Here is the input.
Amino acid sequence: MTIEQQHRIREIFEAALDIESGERGSWVARQTAGDAAVRDEVISLLDHHRRAGNFLAAPVVERVPELLDEDAALVPGTTLGVYTIVKEVGRGGMGRVYLASDSRLGRHVALKALAPQLTRDPMQRERLRREARAAAALTHPGICAVYALEEIDDQLFIVTEFIDGPTLREEIASRRLPGAADIVRS
Amino acid sequence: MAPDRSEGQPAQELAVLVYNELRRLAAAYMRRERPGQTIQATALVHEAYLRLADAGAPWKDERHFVGIAARSMRQILVERARARGAQKRWGGLDRVSLVDSLIAATGEEAMLPALDEALTRLEAIDPEQARIIELRFFGGLSIEEAAAAMDMSPATLKRRWTLARAWLFRELSASSS
Here is the structure.
């Protein structure tokens, strides 16, 4: 493709944007008479323009906080007091859950940590504390046991028993919804 | 027309300076704002400019600065995506999922290294188009702001942006084996 052809392609593509979409094909064919390479390229670009959806529609900088949040995830091997992060097992709007090992007692635990943007919010911290106290007051085989509420390096997290298994979302997705009998029995 | 690199300044040094400032400001916004609220990218870039100008950083003007800010964001976000194994995730998608994810603008982080390479190819054909994408996608500039930075009318900039976006969309949808 020559420079002149590149310029022609740009010019015809840009002008074609003002032509009603039903007319574009024939309009482009008329404009590019005698140069099939230019015609095919313009048609192909217009076709991709039509199908591009939200491609590049939102600037990536707007996602910088989200990306920083990704960076704030605790990576395996990080130690927080007596706990060593093994892996992340879940995340949601409120925070993340990690599988960690408790070096003091030599067992696996689950750490539920508040999302980094929430850790400085006193109300969110209080909410997590309340959740820990409420869950700690209950003992039932269907409720995981709360071991501790920890504050280390400004991070607040609940330490609980680690129970492996599918999430409710995965259960729903697998279409094996628990029946009333399953719920009552447990 | 060669892409505006750093106009004599050590580009990498400026990029790091700008990135650190943007990153610091973004973190400050996150603590201040309510969760879930999106920050205004241009407000962020403008604030970084004011702070760095105060600190005596060598900017000609804000227009010069936004060009460098956009290029810095591109470099740093792409490097970060590479370090996080984005190419592997992107390369693992079949053609249908890849095109779907481009159209829905999901999994953008995984796309960044491929976008960066396509943008470098576009730069070789038409540096102006590549710069427009940089300013708008990586710098967060609106049509009007990008038009002012490029010294062209908003209508012309919008058409050229549309062309560059179509070209990149085709490059990326064809990039899977």
Notes: Chain B touches chain A through 46 residues (CB under 8 Å).
